[in-house]
Amino acid sequence: MKGEIGCILRKTRLLANAEVAVSLVRYPPGLTQPPHEHERPQLSLLLAGGLAETTSRAETFSVRRSSGVKPGGQRHAARFGPVGALMLSLELPADATVQRPGCEWRGMGATERRLLERLLRSERPAERRELALDLASLVDAAPDTLPTPAIPSWLHPTREALDDDPAGARIDELARRAGVHRGHLSRSFTVAYGLPPSLYRARSMAMRSVSLALERDDSLAAVAAEAGFADQSHMARTVRREVGTTVSRLRRLLGDATSVQA
Predict the structure, then answer these.
(1) Which of 9, 126, 161, 180 sits at 20 to 30 Å (Cα–Cα) from 92?
(2) Residue among 36, 37, 45 at smallest CA distance from 71
(3) For residue 126, what are the contacts with CB-CB under 8 A and spacing of at least 6?
(4) What's the pLDDT at 5?
(5) What is the pLDDT of residue 6?
(6) With respect to CATH, is domain 153-253 assigned 3.50.30.30?
(7) Which one is the CATH code of 8-145: 3.30.70.100, 2.60.120.10, 3.90.1300.10, 3.20.110.20?
């Protein structure tokens, strides 16, 4: 991968009380978590990057802004993608009733996105608590279940190219290499991964810029150039749109986070 990114897991606690605990976590590229379980039900919000999650029922895969839930005590394993992942995790009360299957990831609705963006901006514990509880109340109400189809083998090189060098990859050229029409590539990619290749590329670049900003002391302009953006403002617009907050805000939130060698 162009400009290798390190393997440090970073976690910062935004809120902790008996009702709900909220953590912002950056998972490094390629991290594999063996089967484990959480004592309390957990709502996970994927802000950027991607992961595959396995339970006794199924394996699911998500690369777009989505939410997944694990009831307390459910064993699951996770494998994070080649750009890692940025997630907001909510630990719910032990007696919380969760109707959604634990192996299911769903696209976020507009209300979830608005609550999430406000929570990431908030500096006040009382407001964070209210927003987190409102987010938790929507755990069974997200709009659409992400598809988990069999992915054609010819699509794997396309996704790998977008992960390795998202800024340099040209979708027309990727279609030519795959021997398919550009429109067919877009339709097949969207069915397989839940979003078209152009948006997948934007999310990959956004996650890459966040990782670079967290691991280096470079200026944001230098981070934008390394991540393949035209300039810092281009990076700022893309990250705010795809993640829900800014690179500088994430740098502040995770700058003093607990770091673990993964």
Answers:
(1) 9
(2) 37
(3) none
(4) 57
(5) 57
(6) no
(7) 2.60.120.10
- The full DSSP string for 20-49 is -EEEEEEEPTT-EEEEE--SS-EEEEEEEE
Q: CA-to-CA distance for 118 and 140, rounded, in angstroms?
A: 20
Cα angle for residues 195, 199, 202 (degrees, 5° grid):
145
66 phi, psi to nearest 5 deg? -155, 170
Whether the CB-CB separation of 18 and 93 falls below 8 Å is answered with yes
Rounded to whole angstroms, the Cα distance separating 181 from 67 reads 32
Give the closest residue to 45 by CA, choosing from 28, 62, 30, 32: 62
Tokens of 81: 């993608």
Averaged pLDDT in 10-residue chunks for the chain of 262 residues = 64 90 94 91 93 86 88 90 93 76 78 91 92 82 57 92 90 94 91 88 94 92 95 95 93 79 58
Give the global pTM. Answer: 0.85
